[in-house]
Amino acid sequence: MIEVERILRVDHAGEFGAINIYRSQLFVARYLYKDIVPKLEEMLGHEKKHFNTFDRILKSRNIRHCYALYFWAFGGITLGVLTALAGRKAIWVCTDSIESTVLHHLDWQLDFLSQHDTEAYDAVMSIKADEEEHQDFGQTHGSKSFVYKPIFWVVRQSTEFAIWLSTKL
Ligand SMILES: [Fe+2]
Ligand SMILES: [Fe+2]
Fold first, then answer.
1. Cβ–Cβ contacts within 10 Å for residue 158, how many?
2. What CATH class does 2-168 carry?
3. pLDDT digits over 90-110, tens only?
4. How many angstroms does the Cα of residue 104 sit away from the middle of ligand 2?
């Protein structure tokens, strides 16, 4: 079903983007914020596992990956580097912003998949707890200060745009 393929493809691309964000934040953090390196590594580990989950399903069903996959990588690296250079709190604001946007999408996906595709439903369900934990951590370690509002907003818009684009490509 076309809608199921679309969901699997956008989630696969999203995890690829997430991997690139954490990788580039880690690159900066190894120099500037060594204390958060283990946490970022842990989150990167989750995103790799999520990516593999969707990658396996796409391959087993012969579904092509998103044409915008390399745009996600580029976007991820850009967001990762810029937020990391804006400070350690900006890293967590970025996480909070992305995950709250993503979780919103996961909810309607789960709603749809529960009626149409058990395997895809299980795959999306299997990543949800990790993403909730990421958002939670981002929210508590980020900042509610107005200084970070533009970062939160830009990251949210970029995430929404990437998701929108990937449903077209
Ligand atoms: Fe993920
Ligand atoms: Fe995540």
1. 19
2. mainly alpha
3. 999 999 999 999 999 999 999
4. 13
